[in-house]
């Protein structure tokens, strides 16, 4: 039995399923398939000391009732509440696992914010947890560098590779526009503004930008989308929030994924695109480079000119498009699975 503690859906990402919660769900399903029963405790992030005490008692009550071998705590809770990882008096207490989707310190740094107390809490949680799991090698390296804990397990997100590849073939003499896809929540860390700046010099060329993800119905996403539709007029196709099936249906019509995030632990959307043979331009210095591997290019997320240059080359070079398409099709045969991620969790028991 594994007790899984995560934020309640309505407390994160405006009530839509975030990448982290989707990761949790997929990993639990893989654990269940392997015969490791899981029980999920979804709670709102505590705001006061009384809330923390209540959550601690709730978790301990669940542990006494279920007697799990592991308690996995999502980093959105655990990295902010090191109290969850203080050893209990009971000798039979289950191992406590901190699952870090995105280090708090890395997120604050990307936002240009300083919060020493938040970093201190995360450091204590990382150091006190029985086990720490990151979702990428980049994330594990960040935790080691920042907090000097060497024993960090890595459970990369899995990908369900379609049996029949239906990606777009490289087009040389087709009048249809090349299709760029950006699937990301409209928040500043996803860096949609860079796409506006990078694509403005290319408005005279034949391409379209498909935008999908939550947050464009409120600021700052709404204002930025309006600017993109104005300055990239005729090129923008805004799809809004798509279901997982809707995202899957997007790849056969896409030539390239764009993910210019200021910080990204991995980027499940990158490997999902790759599973259909769609390459990606991703932000250098982030975990998305790990996800894309050879099936893409890594570009400075703060240098719009570098993206303009690379996109111009993609638009004008059938050779580059063919090279990246072939790399993506090769990589799709070596993508991680959810079963492999589940085995990492099971090894901690």
Describe this structure in words.
With 349 residues, the protein is an alpha/beta fold. The protein has two domains: 2-155, Rossmann fold; 178-334, 3-Layer(aba) Sandwich (Rossmann fold), CATH 3.40.50.2000. 41% of the residues lie in helices and 17% in strands. The chain has helices spanning 19-33, 49-66, 75-78, 104-111, 116-128, 137-147, 192-199, 221-231, 244-250, 268-274, 288-292, 304-316, 318-331, 338-346; strands spanning 2-7, 38-43, 70-74, 95-100, 131-134, 152-154, 178-183, 207-212, 236-240, 256-259, 280-283, 296-299. The strands form two sheets. A six-stranded parallel sheet has the order 2-1-3-4-5-6, with helices on both faces. A six-stranded parallel sheet has the order 9-8-7-10-11-12, sandwiched between helices. α8 (221-231) links the parallel β8 and β9. α1 (19-33) packs across α14 and α7 (192-199) packs across α12 (304-316). The longest helix is centred in the N-terminal third of the chain and has 18 residues, at 49-66. The N and C termini lie close together (10 Å). The model has no long low-confidence stretch (mean pLDDT 91). This is Glycosyltransferase family 4 protein. Residues 178-330 form the Glycosyl transferase family domain. It comes from Nesterenkonia rhizosphaerae. It holds the Pfam family Glycos_transf_1. Keywords: Transferase.
What brief labels describe this structure?
Rossmann fold; alpha/beta; 6-stranded parallel β-sheet; 14 helices; single chain; 12 strands; 2 domains; 349 residues; globular; Glycosyltransferase family 4 protein; Glyco_trans_1; transferase
């Amino acid at each position: 039995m594994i007790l899984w503690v995560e934020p309640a859906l309505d407390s994160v990402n405006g009530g839509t399923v975030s990448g982290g919660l989707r990761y949790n769900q997929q990993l639990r399903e893989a654990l269940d398939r392997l015969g490791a029963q899981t029980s999920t405790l979804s709670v709102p992030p505590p705001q006061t000391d009384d809330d923390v005490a209540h959550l601690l008692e709730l978790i301990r009550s669940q542990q006494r009732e279920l007697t799990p071998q592991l308690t996995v705590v999502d980093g959105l809770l655990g990295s902010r509440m090191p109290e969850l990882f203080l050893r209990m008096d009971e000798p039979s207490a289950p191992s406590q696992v901190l699952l870090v989707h995105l280090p708090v310190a890395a997120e604050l740094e990307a936002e240009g914010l300083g919060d020493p107390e938040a970093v201190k809490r995360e450091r204590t949680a990382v150091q006190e947890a029985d086990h720490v799991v990151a979702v990428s090698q980049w994330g594990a390296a960040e935790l080691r560098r920042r907090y000097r804990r060497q024993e960090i397990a890595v459970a990369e997100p899995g990908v369900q590779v379609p049996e029949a590849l239906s990606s777009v073939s490289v087009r040389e003499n087709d009048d249809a526009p090349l299709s760029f896809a950006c699937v990301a929540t409209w928040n500043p860390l996803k860096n949609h503004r860079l796409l506006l700046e990078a694509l403005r010099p290319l408005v005279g060329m034949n391409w379209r930008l498909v935008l999908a993800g939550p947050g464009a119905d409120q600021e700052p996403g709404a204002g930025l989308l309006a600017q993109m539709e104005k300055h990239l007029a005729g090129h923008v196709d805004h799809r809004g929030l798509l279901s997982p099936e809707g995202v899957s249906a997007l790849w056969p019509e896409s030539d390239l994924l764009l993910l210019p995030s200021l910080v990204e632990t991995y980027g499940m959307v990158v490997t999902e695109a790759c599973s259909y043979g769609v390459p990606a331009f991703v932000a250098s210095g982030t975990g998305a480079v790990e996800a894309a591997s050879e099936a893409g290019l890594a570009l400075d997320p703060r240098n719009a000119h570098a993206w303009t240059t690379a996109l111009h080359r993609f638009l004008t070079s059938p050779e580059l498009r063919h090279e990246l398409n072939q790399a993506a099709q090769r990589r799709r045969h070596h993508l991680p699975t959810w079963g492999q991620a589940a085995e990492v969790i099971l090894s901690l028991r």
